[in-house]
Amino acid sequence: MSEIQILELLDKLIAQSASRGFDLWVRLESAQKIAEFAKGARDVRCSFGPSTLPAVLISLARDGKKVRFVSKHQFEAELMNLMSMVFDLNVKIIEQDPFLREDGPPADFELSMPPFNMLYQDLHDVPQQILRRLGLDKAKARVTAEVLALEDALENKARRQAVLVAPGTLFRNVGVEKTARGDLLFSGRLRSVLRIPSGMAFEGTSITSNLLILDDQHGGTASLSPIRFVDLQDPHFSNARERGRYEVRPEASWVEAVDAATVAGEAWARDVSISEIEERGGVLTPDRFFAADTEDEVSKLCAGMETFALSDLAEIIRPAPLLKDEDGEFVAREAAAAEIDESGFVVQPSRASKLGQGGLSKAVDQRLAPGDVVLAVKGTIGAVGLVPEDAPAAASGEIWVPGQSLVALRLRKGVQLKPVTLFEFLSSDVMRDYIKSLATGTAVQTLSIKDVKALKIPVPSLSDQSQVEEAFWARQNLYAQIRALREAVENARNAWPHRI
């Protein structure tokens, strides 16, 4: 067997182990694309276990490169040693925390692939210069290896660097992630952020990952240069496979996507100015910047109408914990996105809890009232529903409230916007695509309340809103006919074997 055939066999065997948590092995096709970034480098440094396969591929080129592999875990060092023996590679293996930097000066190309969300709680062994960059002056804190890898890359500059991180590092605004992003953004070294879709890098996880490319090609003016965001989920780079996973298209080069002089007109990349990134809160998730075309569509949808921030038009009612009482005489039903029917109305929620008088009094503040619009901000992002006129009142002893995945939008008194118009606008294809583009998260997507409040909502003339309502109710009549036909079909299944 050739070396590549052996790797392909290993790739298939390890992919079958992915469901059992073996996440040290980057899929072969993605590892090959990552390894291509080392082209032209004289020496290469790969750190942490997931960089094992890219390090092997770089060494297999046998073009005189000096390759270092650094990991603090004995198992990872032993795995790299085994690969070196199998393929007769010249790799220097250092069993040590990569952040200590005792293995030599920065390499021409450095690849850092810390396991996602690996915590450093004891910071005694982290170099002080990295901690100072993050503003940490204590020996213990909850810092992920991904954050430390970004600061390490800025502190130990190489000609080109690649760092793989989970999405949370690029959008989370708690802890030190925001500080690390700011340092990265204004260092002038961040060249590109590549979004790697689900299953393309690691077989055993459904979350996306992001490959950050840093280099020094811009010199002293780098802080003024735009950042290139590349979507590797685009058909130009990948093919969709089962369960929402993606496979690499071998003919598409990730390196060329980063190094191309321009990507104007391409759907899979966008060059974004530092000022625009700042306007969006310093978030570096690629999805946020591929919303540009959708934003243009939203602007077209609002053309000729005065627009307002959603928070100016509606009260945003967030879910709150219920004071449950098993002996209570009242009932609260928590609505979920799954309980928005095909017509757009919220149906009776199935999840019910008993409340006492005190619990009811508190829950009434979040009661869903007829005409409220609900919006999914967690999980099924962008699902929109309208609370029907027959939703129960508190006096009935039963109320509906938004579940944990929803917020309720209640139009403020005096605004010239009708509930049906708000529902129709938010549930339009354009707005749903736009709202989805604002979501962040790894395993579970989340829409921030800040983004909900900032949504621009047009207020059409009253005559135009009347036409919107007429079209809405005409559609409801059609849904009623569909339901009647379905019932008739079901009733027609009245002979064996459908009925006994």
TrEMBL record:
Keywords: DNA-binding, Methyltransferase, Restriction system, Transferase. Pfam families: Methylase_S (PF01420), N6_Mtase (PF02384). GO terms for biological process: methylation. Residues 305-467 form the Type I restriction modification DNA specificity domain. It comes from the Bacteria. Residues 81-297 form the DNA methylase adenine-specific domain. GO terms for molecular function: methyltransferase activity. InterPro entries: DNA_methylase_A-5 (IPR003356), Restrct_endonuc_typeI_TRD (IPR000055), Restrct_endonuc_typeI_TRD_sf (IPR044946), SAM-dependent_MTases_sf (IPR029063). Belongs to the type-I restriction system S methylase family. Belongs to the N(4)/N(6)-methyltransferase family. This is N-6 DNA methylase. It comes from Ruixingdingia sedimenti. The lineage of its organism: Bacteria, Pseudomonadati, Pseudomonadota, Alphaproteobacteria, Rhodobacterales.
